[in-house]
Amino acid sequence: MSERIGLYPGTFDPITNGHLDIVARAARVVDRLIVAVAVNAGKGPLFEYEERVALVRDEVAGLSESIGTPIEVRGFDVLLVSFARACGAKLIVRGLRAVSDFEYEFQMAGMNARLDPEIETLFLMASERCQFISSRFVKEIGRLGGDISSFVSPRIKARLMEKFAAENS
What we know:
With 169 residues, this protein is of the alpha/beta class. 46% of the residues lie in helices and 18% in strands. The protein has a five-stranded parallel sheet, sandwiched between helices. α1 packs across α2.
């Protein structure tokens, strides 16, 4: 039987506890998980592409050992199904926080299935404690001086605070 490789794509600007929850849960259903960081300049990310890849790599480093599934981090700037094919992934993992996420993700899964019917999409519902966390809200709350410590790791919080301080200089 071939290795089940899963791909969890996102912008991860920044990676949140919600993302890490999906990473950990996805790693339990595949033999190897690739966390794919999209360049996605159209979203106007706060962190540069290379920074996001490094931050995600740092955040998932310990998960691989604790779960027992290899987890690697790669960046990409091509069509998602093309990247999945190049990685040998037959499963794209998407996290859903609310019904509003489902409509967009459902359309994306349908398009991806038309582009490559061999690649499946697996939707994982966010854990109850993570359902409301979004990178956009974390950045907005942090930028306005709110406490984001329950939404991101201490390392990510510190990096966000550095970015916000630089914006105000």
